[in-house]
Structures are given as structure tokens and as C-alpha cells.
Design brief:
- The chain is mainly alpha-helical.
- The protein folds into two domains: 2-57; 61-279, Orthogonal Bundle (MetI-like fold), CATH 1.10.3720.
- The protein is 79% helix and 0% strand.
- It has 15 helices and no strands.
- It has helices at 2-36, 39-43, 59-67, 70-101, 104-118, 122-136, 142-148, 150-166, 170-178, 183-194, 196-212, 215-220, 229-236, 244-264, 266-279.
- Mean pLDDT is 81; it is low at 276-280.
Length: 280
């Protein structure tokens, strides 16, 4: 009886997990089907929308890459993402280390305050940030996004790294100091190599956040050649008529890139989020 009960509970668990897995995967399935369907197949109501009723085609991908600015959107997104990630690391890593090792209880409270700034809705900061961009003359440039995005990547990443640095025993650094390392040398040679999971978490988080951000990109960029994927796909590929094939292809390709990134760094990404939370 107990065995049947455990089997039933396990079957129920697997059924629930399978349901949510299929539910989560369905948008990707829909994007793939729509991307490779012929236009006639897409717009014929009698056809089954979940199957290829006609032979697959690459016409939508060809149109996306050669008839739109999509490749430029990807280049712009990559450029902004890489620069923002670099700025975030340069600021967040030493800030988190200093608040964790040197500031004591005051540093922990300050870290919480820094994290709270991340929770401020972007719509509340839009007007003052718009004024800043106007004064600096950065309208219609990618540098406006590069200046704005670190305002919400740095607070969260600093708080995240603080939890991770707390999980590294200070005794390791003290031993390095006894062996002749300076404080900076101990940080660079001892602490940072041990912090790779946390740093990779910051890299993935900051890059994907800048890749998906919509409000500021829509407000500060209107030129087609300067748009990022997050605003280029929904604003440029939706015109008088919906090109569903190109639209879904434009959504599928960035999704695949993000999925690959998470797949390669999944273990370290999970460690970066959980180690600091458990030991901090």
C-alpha cells in the first residue's frame, strides 16, 4: 500500500512537472513552426496551425536578414550589452568586496539600500534620466542606453556579489597577506578566482537584462539603424500588415542565443545565486 502511495505521488509530481515543461516550451515551439511555415500556410484558416501543412521554407529568415535591419539590431544589442557588462563589473566587484570586507554592519545596511534602488520602477526614473540624457546631448545614440542601463544593473549585481563574497572565508585572504600579497593582490589572485560563479552570474544577468529592456530603449532611440532587438522587432517588423513569419523569426533567434548562454553557464549561474544566499 505504501509503495503504491509513493508511486502515485511520484507520478503526480512527474505529471505536474511535465505539464509546466510543455507549457513553458510551447512558445518556442510556436515560434519555430511559424518561422518556417509558408505565408500561404500561415494565413489559410483551414490549415492546422500546429503542423506544417505545406513544405517548410526559409523565406521568412531570408526576408528578416536581408530586407530588414535585424542584423544591425543584433550588433547594437551586443555592443550595448558588452559595454554595460564591463561597466557593471568594474563598479560592482570592488564595491561589493569593499562593503563585505571593510564596512562591517554599516556596509551590510548600505548594501540593502543599494539593492532597494534596483526596485524603483523605471517609469519613475524616466523623467529625470531623460533630462540627464538631454543635457549631455546623447539623444539618438547608443551611448544613452550605455549610460542608463548601469543604473539598474550595478545595484542588483553589487548586492548579489556581496552575498557571494561573504561565502568566501576571510582566513584565505589573511593567509595570502601573511604570504606577502598586498590587499589588492589577495583580491585579484585569491578572491576573484573563487568568485567566478558569482561573476558569471553578474555577466549573464546584466547582459540579458540589457537585451530585454524596452522602456528606455523605446524612449531614447527612434532611428531604425540604432535600435536594439528589444524594440527593433516589435516596432519595425509590425507595420500595416503583420509579417508573422519574420516577427516570430526575430523573436526566436535572440531566444536561442539567450538559451545557449544559460545552457553553457547553468551550473555556475545557479551557484552564483545560491551560494551567497545559503552562506551569506
Amino acid at each position: 500500500m505504501g509503495r503504491l502511495k509513493r508511486l502515485g505521488a511520484r507520478s503526480t509530481l512527474y505529471a505536474v512537472v511535465a505539464f509546466f515543461a510543455l507549457f513553458s516550451a510551447f512558445p518556442f515551439f510556436w515560434m519555430v513552426i511559424t518561422t518556417f511555415k509558408r505565408s500561404h500556410d500561415l494565413y489559410t484558416l483551414e490549415n492546422n496551425p500546429f503542423l506544417f501543412n505545406e513544405p517548410p521554407t526559409l523565406e521568412h529568415l531570408h526576408g528578416l536578414f536581408f530586407d530588414t535591419w535585424f542584423v544591425q539590431y543584433l550588433i547594437n544589442t551586443f555592443f550595448v550589452g558588452v559595454v554595460v557588462v564591463a561597466i557593471t563589473l568594474v563598479v560592482a566587484v570592488p564595491a561589493a568586496y569593499s562593503l563585505t570586507r571593510w564596512a562591517g554592519r554599516w556596509g551590510e545596511n548600505l548594501g540593502i539600500g543599494i539593492f532597494l534602488t534596483y526596485l524603483v520602477p523605471p517609469t519613475l526614473l524616466f523623467i529625470p534620466l531623460s533630462r540627464v540624457i538631454g543635457v549631455l546631448g546623447l539623444q539618438e545614440t547608443l551611448w544613452s542606453l550605455i549610460l542608463i542601463y548601469p543604473t539598474f544593473t550595478i545595484p542588483f549585481c553589487t548586492w548579489l556579489l556581496m552575498g557571494f563574497f561573504k561565502s568566501i572565508p576571510p582566513d584565505i585572504e589573511e593567509q595570502a597577506l601573511i604570504d606577502g600579497y598586498s590587499r589588492l593582490g589577495a583580491m585579484l589572485k585569491i578572491v576573484l578566482p573563487l568568485s567566478i560563479p558569482g561573476i558569471l552570474t553578474v555577466v549573464v544577468f546584466a547582459f540579458t537584462l540589457t537585451m530585454h529592456e524596452f522602456i528606455y530603449a523605446l524612449a531614447f532611440i527612434s532611428s531604425s539603424s540604432l535600435k536594439t532587438v528589444s524594440i527593433g522587432v516589435p516596432t519595425e517588423l509590425i507595420g500595416e500588415f503583420f509579417e508573422w513569419g519574420q516577427l516570430m523569426a526575430g523573436a526566436l533567434i535572440p531566444s536561442i542565443l539567450v538559451a545557449i548562454m544559460y545552457t553553457f553557464f547553468l551550473d555556475r549561474f545557479i551557484a552564483g545565486f545560491t551560494v551567497g544566499a545559503v552562506k551569506g
